[in-house]
Specification:
single chain; 180 residues; alpha+beta; nine-stranded mixed beta sheet; 4 helices
Length: 180
């Protein structure tokens, strides 16, 4: 479950998704210290100090009272190490999701596991009707992760990225293209 006061932790088979804390900045700076992680999103790796400042802003919450920022770090339970993050920006009954798994842990299914777990966690809260993700058209790995979480491409574009969507229809979840 997730609350208006912030995200609640959730787990998957191998991961613990822990609500973001500024104290994670040092370890996350190492996890995210790879320029390749920014190939499709732009930017560059941030220092621990830069991440601390960003995490302070993120944990303080959105300045827009109609928008909630829910952020989690991903800890691999068996290794007791952080390996990435997932996030959801929630407005009304919809959430835009994103995430990153550090290069060292890619190729082991952690991104798919985290995305499936995040979407399930958001649906379990019972208030969302739509989950979206914007994916660069050349980023096959992100497309595979989104598909594993039940999202489908919509043909809609935002800043050069295709919008993928999953929405609730009545009491069920639908991933058929063409719905708004």
């Amino acid at each position: 479950m997730t609350t208006n006061h912030g995200p609640e932790p959730f787990t998957t088979a191998r991961l613990d998704a822990l609500p973001l804390r500024v104290a994670y900045a040092d370890e996350m700076a190492v996890v995210l210290d790879d320029p390749a992680l920014h190939t499709f999103t732009g930017g560059a790796p941030e220092s621990a100090a830069e991440l601390r400042a960003r995490y302070e802003r993120q944990t303080a919450g959105s300045p827009d009272p109609e928008e909630l920022w829910w952020n989690w770090v991903l800890r691999i339970r068996d290794e007791d190490r952080l390996a990435g993050y997932v996030q959801a920006t929630v407005r009304g009954a919809g959430a835009e999701v994103a995430g990153v798994v550090g290069a060292e842990w890619q190729g082991h299914g952690y991104a798919k596991e985290a995305a499936v777990g995040l979407v399930a966690h958001l649906w379990d809260a019972g208030v969302l009707r739509t989950v979206v993700a914007d994916i660069h058209p050349d980023h096959a790995a992100s497309a595979a992760v989104a598909a594993a979480a039940g999202l489908v491409p919509t043909g809609e574009w935002e800043d050069g990225e295709e919008r993928w969507r999953l929405w609730a229809s009545g009491d069920s979840v639908s991933s058929s293209a063409g719905r708004a």
